[in-house]
Amino acid sequence: MSAKGLEGIVATQSSISSIIDGVLTYAGINIDELAENASFEEVVYLLWHGRLPKADELAQLKKDLAENATIPEDVIALLKASPEGNHPMSVLRTAISALALYDPEAQDMTREANLRKATRLQAKVATVIAAYHRLRQGKEIVAPRPDFCLAQNFLYMLNGEEPNQIAIDALDTALVLHADHELNASTFAARVTVATLSDIYSGITSAIGALKGPLHGGANEAVMAMLEDIKDPEQAESYVREKLAQKVKIMGFGHRVYKDGDPRAKHLRKMSEKLTGITGQPQWYEMSVKIDELVTSEKGLKPNVDFYSASVYHSLGIPRDLFTPIFAISRMAGWTAHILEQYENNRLIRPRAEYVGPVNAHYVPLDER
Ligand SMILES: CC(C)(COP(=O)(O)OP(=O)(O)OC[C@H]1O[C@@H](n2cnc3c(N)ncnc32)[C@H](O)[C@@H]1OP(=O)(O)O)[C@@H](O)C(=O)NCCC(=O)NCCS
Protein backbone atom coordinates (compact mmCIF):
# COMPACT_ATOMS: atom_id res chain seq x y z
CA MET A 1 0.00 0.00 0.00
CA SER A 2 1.32 3.44 -0.86
CA ALA A 3 1.27 6.26 1.71
CA LYS A 4 -0.76 9.01 0.06
CA GLY A 5 1.19 12.28 0.24
CA LEU A 6 4.05 10.25 1.81
CA GLU A 7 2.34 10.79 5.17
CA GLY A 8 4.41 9.44 8.04
CA ILE A 9 7.27 8.36 5.75
CA VAL A 10 10.75 9.11 7.11
CA ALA A 11 12.62 9.88 3.88
CA THR A 12 16.00 11.05 5.17
CA GLN A 13 18.13 11.78 8.21
CA SER A 14 18.80 15.41 9.05
CA SER A 15 20.43 17.43 11.82
CA ILE A 16 18.99 20.78 10.78
CA SER A 17 15.59 20.96 12.44
CA SER A 18 13.25 18.55 14.17
CA ILE A 19 9.57 18.22 15.06
CA ILE A 20 9.30 15.78 17.94
CA ASP A 21 6.07 15.48 19.93
CA GLY A 22 4.91 18.79 18.52
CA VAL A 23 8.09 20.62 19.57
CA LEU A 24 10.05 22.38 16.82
CA THR A 25 13.80 22.85 17.22
CA TYR A 26 16.53 24.24 14.98
CA ALA A 27 19.74 22.28 15.63
CA GLY A 28 18.24 21.22 18.96
CA ILE A 29 17.24 24.71 20.13
CA ASN A 30 13.54 25.18 20.86
CA ILE A 31 11.86 27.58 18.44
CA ASP A 32 10.37 29.47 21.41
CA GLU A 33 13.87 30.37 22.64
CA LEU A 34 14.95 31.41 19.18
CA ALA A 35 11.82 33.49 18.58
CA GLU A 36 12.43 35.36 21.84
CA ASN A 37 16.18 35.84 21.51
CA ALA A 38 17.75 35.17 18.12
CA SER A 39 18.18 37.42 15.12
CA PHE A 40 17.46 36.00 11.68
CA GLU A 41 21.16 36.17 10.79
CA GLU A 42 22.02 34.06 13.86
CA VAL A 43 19.45 31.51 12.71
CA VAL A 44 20.88 31.44 9.19
CA TYR A 45 24.28 30.63 10.66
CA LEU A 46 22.76 28.05 13.02
CA LEU A 47 21.03 26.24 10.16
CA TRP A 48 24.11 26.25 7.92
CA HIS A 49 26.65 25.28 10.57
CA GLY A 50 24.66 23.46 13.25
CA ARG A 51 25.68 25.87 16.02
CA LEU A 52 25.17 29.50 16.97
CA PRO A 53 27.80 31.92 15.63
CA LYS A 54 30.40 33.62 17.81
CA ALA A 55 30.44 37.42 17.62
CA ASP A 56 33.08 37.59 14.85
CA GLU A 57 31.36 34.86 12.83
CA LEU A 58 28.05 36.69 13.05
CA ALA A 59 29.67 39.96 12.04
CA GLN A 60 31.29 38.23 9.05
CA LEU A 61 28.00 36.68 7.96
CA LYS A 62 26.23 40.04 8.19
CA LYS A 63 29.01 41.62 6.16
CA ASP A 64 28.86 38.86 3.54
CA LEU A 65 25.07 39.16 3.26
CA ALA A 66 25.26 42.95 2.92
CA GLU A 67 28.02 42.75 0.30
CA ASN A 68 26.07 40.24 -1.79
CA ALA A 69 22.68 41.95 -1.64
CA THR A 70 22.79 43.68 -4.99
CA ILE A 71 21.49 41.94 -8.11
CA PRO A 72 22.87 42.05 -11.68
CA GLU A 73 21.55 44.73 -14.05
CA ASP A 74 20.35 42.00 -16.41
CA VAL A 75 18.17 40.52 -13.67
CA ILE A 76 16.75 43.98 -12.97
CA ALA A 77 16.00 44.23 -16.70
CA LEU A 78 14.28 40.85 -16.52
CA LEU A 79 12.14 42.07 -13.61
CA LYS A 80 11.27 45.19 -15.60
CA ALA A 81 10.33 43.07 -18.60
CA SER A 82 8.05 40.72 -16.60
CA PRO A 83 4.53 40.98 -18.02
CA GLU A 84 2.06 42.66 -15.68
CA GLY A 85 -0.37 40.56 -13.71
CA ASN A 86 2.00 37.75 -12.80
CA HIS A 87 2.25 36.62 -9.22
CA PRO A 88 5.48 37.79 -7.50
CA MET A 89 6.23 34.16 -6.65
CA SER A 90 6.32 33.36 -10.37
CA VAL A 91 8.60 36.32 -10.94
CA LEU A 92 10.79 35.27 -8.00
CA ARG A 93 11.04 31.70 -9.31
CA THR A 94 12.21 33.02 -12.69
CA ALA A 95 14.59 35.63 -11.25
CA ILE A 96 16.28 33.15 -8.90
CA SER A 97 16.77 30.76 -11.78
CA ALA A 98 18.20 33.63 -13.83
CA LEU A 99 20.68 34.53 -11.07
CA ALA A 100 22.43 31.22 -11.76
CA LEU A 101 23.37 32.51 -15.21
CA TYR A 102 25.34 35.36 -13.65
CA ASP A 103 27.08 33.30 -10.97
CA PRO A 104 30.48 32.11 -12.23
CA GLU A 105 30.48 29.45 -9.50
CA ALA A 106 27.02 28.11 -10.40
CA GLN A 107 28.38 24.69 -11.40
CA ASP A 108 31.13 24.44 -8.76
CA MET A 109 30.03 21.63 -6.47
CA THR A 110 32.53 22.06 -3.64
CA ARG A 111 31.09 22.73 -0.18
CA GLU A 112 32.91 26.07 0.01
CA ALA A 113 31.44 27.24 -3.31
CA ASN A 114 27.97 26.01 -2.34
CA LEU A 115 28.19 27.90 0.96
CA ARG A 116 29.15 31.05 -0.94
CA LYS A 117 26.21 30.52 -3.29
CA ALA A 118 23.91 29.99 -0.31
CA THR A 119 25.11 33.34 1.05
CA ARG A 120 24.44 35.02 -2.30
CA LEU A 121 20.99 33.49 -2.58
CA GLN A 122 20.10 34.49 0.98
CA ALA A 123 21.36 38.00 0.37
CA LYS A 124 19.70 38.52 -3.01
CA VAL A 125 16.25 37.04 -2.49
CA ALA A 126 14.97 40.06 -0.52
CA THR A 127 16.44 42.45 -3.09
CA VAL A 128 14.69 40.68 -5.98
CA ILE A 129 11.29 40.87 -4.27
CA ALA A 130 11.64 44.50 -3.19
CA ALA A 131 12.98 45.56 -6.60
CA TYR A 132 10.15 43.83 -8.42
CA HIS A 133 7.57 45.49 -6.18
CA ARG A 134 9.07 48.94 -6.80
CA LEU A 135 9.27 48.39 -10.54
CA ARG A 136 5.70 47.18 -10.91
CA GLN A 137 4.57 50.40 -9.24
CA GLY A 138 6.65 52.43 -11.70
CA LYS A 139 9.07 53.46 -8.93
CA GLU A 140 12.86 53.54 -8.88
CA ILE A 141 14.47 50.59 -7.14
CA VAL A 142 16.22 51.27 -3.83
CA ALA A 143 19.74 49.91 -3.36
CA PRO A 144 20.35 47.81 -0.23
CA ARG A 145 22.21 49.46 2.66
CA PRO A 146 25.36 47.64 3.80
CA ASP A 147 24.79 48.65 7.45
CA PHE A 148 21.26 47.19 7.68
CA CYS A 149 20.24 43.71 8.80
CA LEU A 150 18.22 41.64 6.36
CA ALA A 151 14.76 42.44 7.77
CA GLN A 152 15.60 46.14 7.94
CA ASN A 153 16.98 46.17 4.41
CA PHE A 154 13.96 44.43 2.97
CA LEU A 155 11.53 46.98 4.44
CA TYR A 156 13.86 49.80 3.41
CA MET A 157 14.18 48.58 -0.19
CA LEU A 158 10.43 47.97 -0.38
CA ASN A 159 9.27 51.36 0.90
CA GLY A 160 12.24 53.62 0.20
CA GLU A 161 12.32 54.85 3.79
CA GLU A 162 14.01 53.61 6.95
CA PRO A 163 11.65 51.32 8.87
CA ASN A 164 10.98 51.80 12.58
CA GLN A 165 12.38 49.40 15.16
CA ILE A 166 9.01 47.78 15.90
CA ALA A 167 8.59 46.84 12.25
CA ILE A 168 12.18 45.57 11.97
CA ASP A 169 11.82 43.42 15.10
CA ALA A 170 8.47 42.01 13.99
CA LEU A 171 9.74 41.04 10.54
CA ASP A 172 12.96 39.65 12.01
CA THR A 173 10.99 37.40 14.38
CA ALA A 174 8.70 36.29 11.55
CA LEU A 175 11.80 35.35 9.53
CA VAL A 176 13.19 33.37 12.49
CA LEU A 177 9.90 31.48 12.81
CA HIS A 178 9.70 30.52 9.12
CA ALA A 179 13.38 29.70 8.53
CA ASP A 180 13.19 25.92 8.58
CA HIS A 181 10.69 23.16 9.11
CA GLU A 182 12.14 19.69 8.70
CA LEU A 183 11.06 17.90 5.52
CA ASN A 184 8.27 20.26 4.42
CA ALA A 185 7.13 20.10 0.79
CA SER A 186 9.42 22.79 -0.64
CA THR A 187 12.49 21.54 1.24
CA PHE A 188 11.78 18.02 0.03
CA ALA A 189 11.47 19.37 -3.52
CA ALA A 190 14.86 21.07 -3.15
CA ARG A 191 16.46 17.89 -1.83
CA VAL A 192 14.97 15.72 -4.58
CA THR A 193 16.33 18.11 -7.21
CA VAL A 194 19.87 18.37 -5.86
CA ALA A 195 20.02 14.65 -5.09
CA THR A 196 20.44 14.20 -8.86
CA LEU A 197 23.61 16.30 -8.32
CA SER A 198 21.97 19.22 -10.03
CA ASP A 199 23.12 22.65 -8.82
CA ILE A 200 21.90 24.70 -5.84
CA TYR A 201 20.02 27.21 -8.04
CA SER A 202 18.00 24.35 -9.55
CA GLY A 203 17.18 23.13 -6.05
CA ILE A 204 16.03 26.57 -4.91
CA THR A 205 13.99 27.09 -8.09
CA SER A 206 12.17 23.81 -7.39
CA ALA A 207 11.61 24.87 -3.78
CA ILE A 208 10.11 28.23 -4.73
CA GLY A 209 7.73 26.50 -7.12
CA ALA A 210 6.60 24.17 -4.34
CA LEU A 211 6.24 26.94 -1.76
CA LYS A 212 3.98 28.93 -4.06
CA GLY A 213 1.01 26.56 -3.73
CA PRO A 214 -1.87 27.44 -1.37
CA LEU A 215 -1.49 24.18 0.57
CA HIS A 216 2.04 25.32 1.54
CA GLY A 217 3.41 28.88 1.61
CA GLY A 218 0.60 30.35 -0.46
CA ALA A 219 -1.75 29.90 2.51
CA ASN A 220 -0.69 33.16 4.24
CA GLU A 221 -1.90 35.19 1.28
CA ALA A 222 -5.13 33.19 1.11
CA VAL A 223 -5.74 33.93 4.82
CA MET A 224 -5.53 37.68 4.19
CA ALA A 225 -7.86 37.35 1.19
CA MET A 226 -10.36 35.66 3.52
CA LEU A 227 -10.01 38.35 6.23
CA GLU A 228 -10.50 41.09 3.64
CA ASP A 229 -13.51 39.24 2.28
CA ILE A 230 -15.05 39.04 5.76
CA LYS A 231 -14.24 42.72 6.51
CA ASP A 232 -16.10 42.90 9.82
CA PRO A 233 -15.35 40.70 12.89
CA GLU A 234 -19.14 40.41 13.40
CA GLN A 235 -19.38 38.57 10.07
CA ALA A 236 -16.58 36.12 10.83
CA GLU A 237 -18.71 33.41 12.41
CA SER A 238 -21.37 33.20 9.70
CA TYR A 239 -18.71 33.38 6.96
CA VAL A 240 -16.67 30.53 8.39
CA ARG A 241 -19.72 28.39 9.24
CA GLU A 242 -20.89 28.70 5.65
CA LYS A 243 -17.48 27.72 4.27
CA LEU A 244 -17.28 24.73 6.60
CA ALA A 245 -20.81 23.64 5.58
CA GLN A 246 -19.65 23.82 1.95
CA LYS A 247 -16.60 21.70 2.91
CA VAL A 248 -14.27 24.49 1.87
CA LYS A 249 -10.90 24.42 3.64
CA ILE A 250 -10.18 27.35 5.91
CA MET A 251 -6.70 28.53 4.99
CA GLY A 252 -4.16 28.77 7.80
CA PHE A 253 -5.58 25.78 9.69
CA GLY A 254 -4.48 22.18 9.96
CA HIS A 255 -1.10 20.61 9.49
CA ARG A 256 0.30 17.34 8.24
CA VAL A 257 2.62 16.91 11.23
CA TYR A 258 1.21 18.99 14.11
CA LYS A 259 -2.07 17.60 15.29
CA ASP A 260 -2.12 19.56 18.54
CA GLY A 261 -1.16 23.01 17.28
CA ASP A 262 1.76 24.67 15.55
CA PRO A 263 4.26 26.03 18.12
CA ARG A 264 5.02 29.01 15.88
CA ALA A 265 1.43 30.25 15.77
CA LYS A 266 1.34 31.60 19.35
CA HIS A 267 4.26 33.96 18.63
CA LEU A 268 2.57 35.29 15.52
CA ARG A 269 -0.72 35.64 17.37
CA LYS A 270 0.96 37.83 20.02
CA MET A 271 2.64 39.88 17.29
CA SER A 272 -0.66 40.27 15.45
CA GLU A 273 -2.37 41.60 18.57
CA LYS A 274 0.41 44.10 19.19
CA LEU A 275 0.85 45.31 15.62
CA THR A 276 -2.83 45.62 14.73
CA GLY A 277 -3.21 47.67 17.93
CA ILE A 278 -0.35 49.97 16.95
CA THR A 279 -1.70 50.50 13.44
CA GLY A 280 -5.20 51.17 14.76
CA GLN A 281 -6.65 48.19 12.87
CA PRO A 282 -7.50 45.74 15.66
CA GLN A 283 -10.29 44.25 13.53
CA TRP A 284 -7.82 41.98 11.74
CA TYR A 285 -6.69 40.45 15.02
CA GLU A 286 -10.21 40.27 16.46
CA MET A 287 -11.48 38.59 13.32
CA SER A 288 -8.58 36.15 13.36
CA VAL A 289 -9.25 35.19 16.98
CA LYS A 290 -12.94 34.56 16.24
CA ILE A 291 -12.06 32.34 13.29
CA ASP A 292 -9.40 30.56 15.37
CA GLU A 293 -11.89 29.77 18.15
CA LEU A 294 -14.57 28.63 15.75
CA VAL A 295 -12.41 26.39 13.55
CA THR A 296 -10.76 24.90 16.64
CA SER A 297 -14.10 24.10 18.31
CA GLU A 298 -15.94 22.99 15.15
CA LYS A 299 -13.20 21.05 13.37
CA GLY A 300 -10.55 20.44 16.04
CA LEU A 301 -8.06 22.17 13.72
CA LYS A 302 -5.54 24.65 15.14
CA PRO A 303 -3.99 27.62 13.34
CA ASN A 304 -0.68 27.00 11.61
CA VAL A 305 2.22 29.41 10.96
CA ASP A 306 0.35 31.08 8.10
CA PHE A 307 -2.78 32.11 9.95
CA TYR A 308 -1.58 34.97 12.14
CA SER A 309 1.29 35.88 9.81
CA ALA A 310 -1.34 37.32 7.47
CA SER A 311 -2.43 40.08 9.87
CA VAL A 312 1.19 40.60 10.98
CA TYR A 313 2.44 41.29 7.44
CA HIS A 314 -0.64 43.37 6.66
CA SER A 315 0.10 45.53 9.71
CA LEU A 316 3.63 46.05 8.40
CA GLY A 317 2.09 47.59 5.28
CA ILE A 318 3.14 44.68 3.08
CA PRO A 319 0.87 43.96 0.10
CA ARG A 320 -0.88 40.61 0.18
CA ASP A 321 0.86 39.06 -2.81
CA LEU A 322 4.26 39.59 -1.15
CA PHE A 323 3.39 37.45 1.89
CA THR A 324 4.55 34.20 0.29
CA PRO A 325 7.70 35.79 -1.16
CA ILE A 326 8.57 36.87 2.41
CA PHE A 327 8.17 33.25 3.45
CA ALA A 328 10.70 32.47 0.68
CA ILE A 329 13.19 35.03 2.07
CA SER A 330 13.10 33.23 5.38
CA ARG A 331 12.94 29.64 4.13
CA MET A 332 15.92 30.30 1.87
CA ALA A 333 17.99 29.69 5.02
CA GLY A 334 16.47 26.25 5.54
CA TRP A 335 16.43 25.28 1.87
CA THR A 336 20.11 26.07 1.42
CA ALA A 337 21.01 24.28 4.68
CA HIS A 338 19.17 21.16 3.50
CA ILE A 339 20.80 21.32 0.07
CA LEU A 340 24.26 21.50 1.69
CA GLU A 341 23.33 18.56 3.92
CA GLN A 342 22.01 16.56 0.96
CA TYR A 343 25.27 17.04 -0.97
CA GLU A 344 27.28 15.93 2.08
CA ASN A 345 25.73 12.47 2.11
CA ASN A 346 23.94 12.15 -1.20
CA ARG A 347 21.94 9.37 -2.71
CA LEU A 348 19.48 9.77 -5.58
CA ILE A 349 15.92 10.12 -4.26
CA ARG A 350 13.79 7.84 -6.34
CA PRO A 351 10.78 6.24 -4.67
CA ARG A 352 8.38 3.80 -6.30
CA ALA A 353 4.72 4.08 -7.28
CA GLU A 354 2.09 1.43 -6.68
CA TYR A 355 0.77 0.77 -10.17
CA VAL A 356 -3.04 0.82 -10.39
CA GLY A 357 -3.48 1.27 -14.15
CA PRO A 358 -4.62 -1.24 -16.80
CA VAL A 359 -2.66 -4.47 -17.30
CA ASN A 360 -2.11 -6.63 -20.35
CA ALA A 361 -3.12 -3.81 -22.68
CA HIS A 362 -2.01 -3.89 -26.32
CA TYR A 363 -1.06 -1.42 -28.95
CA VAL A 364 -3.93 -0.73 -31.35
CA PRO A 365 -3.07 0.74 -34.75
CA LEU A 366 -4.29 4.31 -35.23
CA ASP A 367 -7.01 3.50 -37.80
CA GLU A 368 -8.49 0.74 -35.59
CA ARG A 369 -9.05 2.91 -32.48
C1 LIG B 1 -1.95 21.72 5.82
C2 LIG B 1 -2.78 20.70 5.07
C3 LIG B 1 -2.43 20.74 3.57
C4 LIG B 1 -2.44 19.31 5.60
O1 LIG B 1 -3.06 18.42 4.76
P1 LIG B 1 -3.26 16.88 5.05
O2 LIG B 1 -2.35 16.40 6.12
O3 LIG B 1 -3.20 16.20 3.74
O4 LIG B 1 -4.71 16.83 5.65
P2 LIG B 1 -6.02 16.62 4.81
O5 LIG B 1 -6.14 17.66 3.77
O6 LIG B 1 -6.08 15.18 4.37
O7 LIG B 1 -7.08 16.89 5.93
C5 LIG B 1 -7.61 15.90 6.84
C6 LIG B 1 -9.06 16.29 7.12
O8 LIG B 1 -9.10 17.57 7.76
C7 LIG B 1 -9.80 18.51 6.93
N1 LIG B 1 -9.04 19.75 6.91
C8 LIG B 1 -7.70 19.87 6.88
N2 LIG B 1 -7.36 21.16 6.84
C9 LIG B 1 -8.49 21.85 6.85
C10 LIG B 1 -8.78 23.21 6.83
N3 LIG B 1 -7.78 24.11 6.78
N4 LIG B 1 -10.07 23.61 6.85
C11 LIG B 1 -11.06 22.70 6.90
N5 LIG B 1 -10.85 21.37 6.92
C12 LIG B 1 -9.58 20.96 6.89
C13 LIG B 1 -9.80 17.89 5.54
O9 LIG B 1 -10.89 18.35 4.77
C14 LIG B 1 -9.90 16.42 5.87
O10 LIG B 1 -11.22 16.13 6.22
P3 LIG B 1 -11.91 14.74 5.77
O11 LIG B 1 -11.08 13.67 6.42
O12 LIG B 1 -13.30 14.87 6.28
O13 LIG B 1 -11.81 14.71 4.28
C15 LIG B 1 -4.28 20.97 5.26
O14 LIG B 1 -4.58 21.01 6.64
C16 LIG B 1 -4.73 22.25 4.58
O15 LIG B 1 -5.04 22.22 3.38
N6 LIG B 1 -4.76 23.39 5.32
C17 LIG B 1 -5.07 24.67 4.71
C18 LIG B 1 -3.87 25.20 3.95
C19 LIG B 1 -2.81 25.70 4.86
O16 LIG B 1 -3.07 26.42 5.81
N7 LIG B 1 -1.58 25.35 4.53
C20 LIG B 1 -0.40 25.82 5.26
C21 LIG B 1 0.25 24.70 5.99
S1 LIG B 1 1.51 25.29 7.06
UniProtKB/TrEMBL annotation:
**Coiled-coil segments:** none
For this protein, the record's CDD domains field holds: BSuCS-II_like (cd06110)
Positions of the catalytic residues: 255, 306
Kindly list the biological process annotations in GO that this record carries. Answer: carbohydrate metabolic process; tricarboxylic acid cycle
Q: Which Gene3D superfamilies match?
A: Citrate Synthase, domain 1, Cytochrome P450-Terp, domain 2
Q: Which keywords accompany this UniProt record?
A: Acyltransferase, Transferase, Tricarboxylic acid cycle
Q: Name one Pfam family in it.
A: Citrate_synt
In Swiss-Prot or TrEMBL terms, this protein is called Citrate synthase
Q: What is the lineage of its organism?
A: Bacteria, Bacillati, Bacillota, Bacilli, Bacillales
- The coding gene here is citZ
